[in-house]
Amino acid sequence: MMATTHALWGMVLALPVLAIAPELAPVAFVAGFVGGLAPDLDLYTGHRKTFHYPVYASIAAVPALAAALLAPTTLTVALGVGLAAAALHAVADAFGGGLELRPWEGTSERAVYSHYHDRWVRPRRWVRYDGAPEDLALAGVAAAPLAMIGTGPITTVVLAFVTVSAVYVLLRRHLAGVAERLVRLVPDSLTPYLPARYRRA
């Protein structure tokens, strides 16, 4: 799924905080945003493996959310929402496409790495690939309550993310070809440092 989709769904996890403890909502929205994006910091260093923990992040999120519920503070809410958003991101990647330059071709059987099981989880392809129309639909579903209930800055971020997502969806298939052409310009000495999906291009 798109990074924007993950970030928006991470922010959705902050909505209960807005209802229960509105004074802590700003930190919850930021934590959901960061937690939803953070796993993709491994984009160029073992993508969907280095910072993706579908099992461990999910386990860690349970006591963190319990602490936030029982003793809501800036720290407990940030940890609870942030960990839950990171876990949701890692789990959701299993329902998308595989790790390949053209995921709509369905040639990769690697969706996300489970460190607990010490193996790759296969892609379910419910969202066929990042930037697919159904990916944009998921982003829209998350964006709707955020835009309606969120504050001015939240609404601005949400509308910006939906706009970026829509443009990406329109260009997604063309971007694979652009990447292939750019990879050919990379010096041979740097090729080993490219992610595997680009080296195969």
From TrEMBL:
Source organism, top-level taxon: Archaea
Keywords: Hydrolase, Membrane, Transmembrane, Transmembrane helix
Keyword Hydrolase belongs to the record: yes
A GO molecular function held by the record: hydrolase activity
Ranges that cross the membrane: 51-70, 77-99, 146-171
Record protein name field: Metal-dependent hydrolase
